[in-house]
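Deliverable D2.4 — example input (structure tokens):
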């Protein structure tokens, strides 16, 4: 927690996404500056914001007072108004923000933002839908983190056919082309990192694996 308190995030636009992000970051001990033109939205987050600011996100003079260059990251979430989003992004960049993350509205909007040098463009609804689809189509995958277009870090339930066997017997790396970096008990949460070859898999366990998506899919198809 002490480390988290050193982090300072500026969130511009306190709609549903900005507000949810502010609350989650604050839960982790981060210091949050929140800017919105709606006094009520800022007031609703009085227990969350370290520095509440009521003002126009496109007004450079307002943004100059937010110490953007010192922020860990600046997150811009201004609803469906592409013009406001682009203006706020330009000002934040020119005022020295080191890392700018912007909520995209359309593909074209995202392309323009990337040309402005933002660190990341996010499309929350699309990203949530994709993550949900991955979990629905891979029912034994508990969690899924893409590392790059080919490789993923996945938490997958131990298939019934592997229960009672050791990692050496299974030779998962050779058989499936994935690396087992940990085994977690789904009930207690106890984690065994980098288990040895004599580790025997049991029921109610999760494998933490890294591998190409095709290899992960092969693990998923095991019964």
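Example output (designed residues):
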């Amino acid at each position: 927690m002490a480390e988290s308190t050193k982090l300072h995030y500026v969130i511009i636009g306190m709609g549903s996404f900005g507000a949810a992000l502010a609350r989650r970051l604050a839960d982790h001990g981060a210091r949050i500056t929140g800017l919105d033109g709606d006094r009520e939205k800022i007031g609703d987050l009085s227990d969350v914001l370290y520095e509440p600011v009521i003002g126009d996100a496109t007004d450079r003079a307002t943004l100059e007072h937010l110490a953007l260059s010192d922020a860990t990251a600046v997150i811009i979430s201004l609803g469906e108004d592409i013009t406001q989003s682009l203006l706020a992004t330009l000002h934040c960049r020119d005022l020295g923000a080191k890392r700018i993350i912007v909520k995209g509205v359309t593909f074209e909007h995202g392309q323009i933002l990337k040309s402005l040098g933002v660190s990341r463009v996010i499309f929350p609804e699309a990203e949530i839908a994709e993550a949900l689809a991955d979990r629905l189509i891979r029912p034994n995958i508990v969690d899924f983190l893409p590392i790059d277009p080919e490789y993923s870090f996945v938490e997958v339930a131990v298939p019934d056919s592997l229960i009672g066997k050791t990692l050496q017997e299974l030779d998962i790396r050779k058989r499936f082309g994935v690396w087992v970096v940990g085994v977690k008990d789904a009930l207690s949460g106890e984690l065994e990192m980098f288990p040895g070859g004599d580790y025997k898999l049991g029921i109610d366990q999760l494998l933490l694996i890294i591998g190409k998506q095709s290899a992960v899919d092969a693990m998923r198809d095991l019964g």
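The first strand starts at residue 8 and ends at 12.
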